[in-house]
Design a protein that fits this description.
The structure holds 2 protein chains of 2 kinds. Chain A is mainly beta. Chain A is built from no helices and 11 strands. The N and C termini of chain B lie far apart (38 Å). Classes of the chains: A mainly beta, B mainly beta.
């Protein structure tokens, strides 16, 4: 089972460059999420998508855009990368239910460095 | 206000001993779920245990148990018989009604041989 697949695993960018982080899940989950993880700050939600065709801002959306391409795929785009966006990015997916015991399933992360 | 607070940045435990990792939460929703995740040095997030706000019993999963004190809004993770492989970051998370999760800042656990 692939679960949640993120690409790339590592990336180095120069300030001002753009790039898209890809995420795909094969668990037929409706909800998908993008987080960033910085030392001492835990995981902070950037954007999420409760279902195909919908996206919502999380705690730290500035400087990012997302696309829910279809049920399986949820991409995160940095239009003009800044050093403050150096982080580890995690994609997650989840069964959508009003309140369930289902956890989020995470990809392995993308380590992004911006010089 | 922080939704999830983990006040122990780092913890040490002797191998084979039990350890408690603290988590307090803040919500006004009557329905919510609490989750614990483990993040080893390799970086992946591993789901450990879940506790629902209406669950009468404390959750247990193998060596993991959750000490749920609803009135105090705490959901502490207890790891019994610690193993070297338990050394990792541990995150507490909460889901209220809806699809958002809120994570704490984590506790780094080191198991000493």
């Amino acid at each position: 089972n692939a679960g949640v697949t993120q690409t790339p695993k590592f990336q180095v960018l120069k300030t001002g460059q753009s790039m898209t982080l890809q995420c795909a899940q094969d668990m037929n989950h409706n909800s998908m999420y993008w987080y960033r993880q910085d030392p001492g700050m835990g995981l902070r939600l950037i954007y999420y998508s409760a279902s195909e065709g919908t996206t919502d801002k999380g705690e730290v959306p500035n400087g990012y855009n997302v696309s829910r391409l279809n049920k399986r795929e949820f991409s995160l785009r940095l239009e003009s990368a800044a050093p403050s966006q150096t982080s580890v990015y995690f994609c997650a997916s989840m069964v959508t239910a009003p309140l369930s015991n289902q956890p989020q399933h995470f990809g392995d992360g993308t380590r992004l460095s911006i010089l | 206000a922080q939704k999830i607070t983990q006040t122990q940045p780092g913890m040490f435990v002797q191998e084979k001993e039990a350890v408690t990792l603290d988590c307090t939460y803040d919500t006004s929703d009557p329905s919510y779920g609490l989750f614990w995740y483990k993040q080893p040095s390799s970086g992946e997030m591993i789901f450990l245990i879940y506790q629902g706000s209406y669950d009468q019993q404390n959750a247990t999963e193998g060596r993991y148990s959750l000490n749920f004190q609803k009135a105090r809004k705490s959901a502490n993770l207890v790891i019994s018989a610690s193993q070297l492989g338990d050394s990792a970051m541990y995150f507490c998370a909460m889901r209220e009604w809806g699809n958002q999760f809120y994570f704490g800042t984590g506790t780094s656990l080191t198991v000493i041989p």
